[in-house]
Fold:
Amino acid sequence: MFATVYHVVIANDPWALIPAWLTLVLLVVAAVVGLTQVSQAKKLRELQVRPYVTLDLTTKVDSPTLLYLVVENTGHSIARDVTFKFIPELKSTLEGRREQDSPAAFFGRPWPTVVPGKRIETLFESAIARLADGQSLPLKYDVTITYTAPALGDRLFVEQCVIDVGALRGLQFTVSKGFDELAKAAEGILKVVKAWSRDDRLDVLTEDRDHYDADQKRVRDELWAEHQARGAAQQTVSKDPPGEGLTREESASEPEDTKTPTDDGL
Structure:
């Protein structure tokens, strides 16, 4: 009987179902919007909770010719089982004799954890040596970073990045000084002040500049006069004939056999 009444209503007034269809459409649109908002809220929560491990190539202000590889977790949760894969294999001109000291060994083993905000730097290369003519080591590396997020049920994340040493070719830099250089300069000044001090007191000499210049001129004139007098005396001695410079006592004390014989002695 209900089906008969319903059929009669549709047959008599087809527009009677329009509000019902509109209600159904609105319900479907609301459901889609709700699901979209839920998905976006889930993604936003993941972005707020997930870790984000990055690898970058950088320099320092105090050593602009040295290249450092920097690993940092810029996310908001801990990252576990972090691994790095370099293509081609990571090489450096600064590698020591021991293989475990090389950058490849540093990044070759898995890292158990990288906490949020953690920044790890390691010396990688000398830019001067790496960019020198005739250097055969590669300049570009494709890096794959994998890690899991315990905050998201140990979900696996994979990041891709590129380390390009060649991008630093032709890089210009200025040497800037900071508090370290200021502290060293202060230490130097302190040493000089201590050298000028006696009994923990600073020895200060104050003197009129004109008086100082006059004293220096007087000393130079005296030295010059003494030098001229010594030179004149040397010239006088060299011009005297033999024996002329002897005194009467020195002449009388000459030996008898040195006197010239005369007729009285014959």
Summary: Residues 53-168 form a domain with the Immunoglobulin-like fold (CATH 2.60.40). The two ends are 199 Å apart (CA to CA).
